[in-house]
Amino acid sequence: MKYLPLVFGALFRKKWRTLLALLSLMAAFLLLGLGQAINSLVEGGAEFLGVDRLITQARTSFTQPLPLRLLPRIEAVPGVKRVGWSQFFGGVYQDPRNFFPQFAVDPARLYDTYPEWTLDPDAKRDFVATRNGAIAGRLLAEKHGWKVGDTIPLSSFIWQKRDGGNAWEWKLVGIFDGRDEAWQKRTSIMYLNFGYFDESRVAGAAGLAGVFVVRLSDPAEVDTVAARIDAQFANSPDETKTQSEQEFQIGFLRQIGDIAFIINAILGAAFFSILILTGFIMNQSVRERVPEFGVLKCLGFTDRTVLGLVLAEALALCVSGAVLGIGLAYAVTSMLPADYPARMDSRVLLIAAATAVVLAVVVGLPPAWRAMHLKIVDALAGR
Amino acid sequence: MSVLIEIRRLSKVYERGKQRIEVLHGIDLDIPEGDFVALMGPSGSGKTTLLNLIGGLDTLTEGSLKIDGERIDALTGAALAAWRANTVGFIFQSYNLMPVLNAQRNVELPLLLADMNTAERARRARVALELVGLSDRASHKPGELSGGQQQRVAIARALVSDPRILICDEPTGDLDRKTADEILRMLQSLNREHGKTIVMVTHDPKAAEYARRTVHLDKGVLVDEAAH
Hints:
- The complex is a heterodimer of chains A (about 375) and B (about 230).
- In chain A, about 55% of the residues lie in helices and about 15% in strands.
- Chain A is α+β, with helices and mostly antiparallel strands and about 375 residues long.
- In chain A, strands 1, 3, 4, 5, 6, 7, 8, 9, 10, 12 and 13 form an 11-stranded mixed β-sheet that branches. A two-stranded antiparallel ribbon of chain A has the order 2-11.
- In chain A, α2 (about 15-45) packs antiparallel against α11 (about 260-290), α2 (about 15-45) packs across α13 and α11 runs parallel beside α14.
- Chain B is built from 7 helices and 10 strands.
- Classes of the chains: A alpha+beta (about 375), B alpha/beta (about 230).
């Protein structure tokens, strides 16, 4: 602590230079904070999903539908408790910007496969009984001001109706919520009655579902049951790929590319530039102060103390940049709507702290080493 | 007076590549405690090298250098740094203050190495600044002070840990005559009233007159010695 005036005094010897270095570091750590928050979303965003659910998709791609006739054979697999199915609808509400996920499902099977959703019994019955019925999540309904009984027009960019149009009208029969906070945050989706969807869409697509949702009797049997299901359809025209819901979700997010790799590559490039810049600044700063280090050694400062002082400067600079950047990233992610749950968590903070320390050592050690080994008489002469 | 600094057959050789430069050759010199010695001589005579050796800033090639009976030429690294911190105060021609610290913080610098709390450091620094007549400039940074004032801050820094020896390398070299005389009178007072042993390198014969005696070097050997 007693050396702090010396450390900060040296840092602010050239105020503009330090300020620019600090801004560069802040920008890099802001990028790191936001990037890692997105990574956390991709890697950990599916953690809340049920561990007792499997998703069975076509082996080639989840965009390739599977025939509903596979259903009895999946239901017959030992360890399977209940099977539902789901088809991505791909609709927009009034304006293309109003996109939210919609899935056509069998209502009765939805309740069995997703018990995490809560819906009052009357609405449950209405969803089963209403031909063009739909239920909306609470956050979605609140966002658009929907009430039960409203007609919700959706234009699908995937599915055409048999009459050639893509405008679909759905009657809102219920508003569902999540049983806990994690699920409540994800109520920005909508479920549509598959029956109406299937009979109304173009003839060639009828009887097909995007994926089967398989609920297990025993969560410990995830791998075994998945293997059994896929074995059922091996070497058939409808080969399947069954995986846990978490794996499926992560795989879905990665369809747009390996987000983590792209983010880390960008961060790597940014931090390499920062490393060069900060390293240059630290070297320059030490070079300018060679006689001052000579004086400190004259006064009795040991070589190790001088080494520590320069490293402390580097650490103070990098940690200050990290605190500012991560603080800003925290503010940005806090302002994101619930639909984008990218959040700063302890993992991101740990990564940022470790990065700041490593950066400080890498940029601080070479000039610190040089200052440590300065000969007093040479340093006093500015050599 | 007992001998504080005892130099015997001291030689210093610098090697620059294949070139071997003998800067000091067989120096024998005794400096009693409480003495004020001016080292004079032409450029390249070795006076600053001798001063650096006495201050423990450089290592000798041959001979011995005892201070208060201790072979400081045998000390290295942290032990030598600790010896410097406890025994020697340095005053340089170009003051060598930390430009980012104010006068008070500059004077406190040597005390950072001592086991001392913040309040005690500040108190001692204030006393040292009062001694050099600069207590009203404690919050000023070196850039806000005149050359004479900066040198007085440097003297306060050299004194604050109460060393027995003051090493002065051309302390008035950058000052006008009037200010130089003020500084030299201050050094003389520190020698006479506070008993500090002072070794000062100077080119200026008038500055040397403030010392108790002058030692002349030429081409690395002692050539003359005169008491004032």
